[in-house]
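Write out the bound-state structure for beta-D-glucopyranose.
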Amino acid sequence: MKKKILSFMLAATMLTGLLAGCGSSESDNGAASNSGQNAGGAATEAGATNTDGGSVQVGIVLPTKDEPRWLQDQAQFESILGDAGFTNQVLFSQGSSATEKTNVETLVSQGVSVLIICAQDGAAAAAAVEEAKAAGVTVIAYDRLITGTDAVDYYVTFDSVAVGEAQGQYLIDNAPEGTGIPLYLYAGAATDNNAFLFFEGAWKVLQPKIADGTFVIANSPEAVALQDKAELTRDEQGKIIGQITTDWDFNVAKSKAEAHLTAAGADSKGDVLVLAPNDGTARSIADVFAADKDITSYRITGQDSEKASVQYVIDGKQSMTVFKDTRTLAADSVEMAVSVLNGNTPATDTTYNNEKKDVPAKQTDIVVVTKDNVKQALIDSGYYEASEFTGLE
Ligand code: BGC
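---
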């Protein structure tokens, strides 16, 4: 353990420099070797230096490889941890809490000191992190809060309520003139605490426009039943989310949107608004709306700034996305790990209650991206290369 702490201390110095230049993927990686592995067990080019006789210092568990969002996070972790000289391993749960638990157990058996975990299912992950905690591992919940357990030490997250607010506000600011505008609502997976936070933010800004008749909910009787309530309880949110969930799955999103448009009458067609919770589901839903001859125009939200959605935004097929800079989130969690292992208390700026405790948290702001600022937000910031897109002005 002492050796690990020393290497973390060393890395802390390196990390400070690294964070200052955050965004560059060409940072000094003089210490060569690669001990990082991906879920398939194949060695990656993580560039991590093995300083501890083959064991893994920092274990990372991410929900799925099937969404580009989490591949962005993987790339950032491997780059930051590798450059800082940590051995690390990123494992994917592939949508299964059982796989997630096995992944945690694997990492614990490999001797990780810190576990950074983005839960597949926030409640189900409690058992896995309790096991890690019992083995002396520091647990950092990453992006998604793990609920119902005191085995979560820290939480690094984007401001998820602000994501939902930004989506709702975009629809308000870009709505067609008039009243009675059809509004289609979609949400994330009910097993993800973030789905509630995104919906809470969106509802906060959209509800007054629904209550005064400017917007008319087109696809959720549960939401219609609650439309006069400015603030919803978790149970009430759960009822609506249960009806409009995409499960974070493109196919579910597509078939729900198809069913909604098939059932919709003429007054729910024409110029419409769509609250889509993230980019993957937004692209699926947008394709369905674009194919309906009775939809004259649609505005649709998203989040994550996935490459495919950035192209959709440039092409006018998706109206906005929210940029959640994974460089910052990954760097924040690594910085937190370094701090813990140096015996310091990591800097946090808020807390999130997970039903068992107020988890100290570090929260990162989000940026709204539309056609107008896509270049400035995503290319000039070094997140993507202009050459990865067509039609960029
Ligand atoms: C994340 C989003 C992501 C979604 C689906 C959420 O918890 O915050 O960025 O799009 O999960 O994976």
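---
The first strand starts at residue 58 and ends at 62.
The chain has 13 helices and 13 strands.
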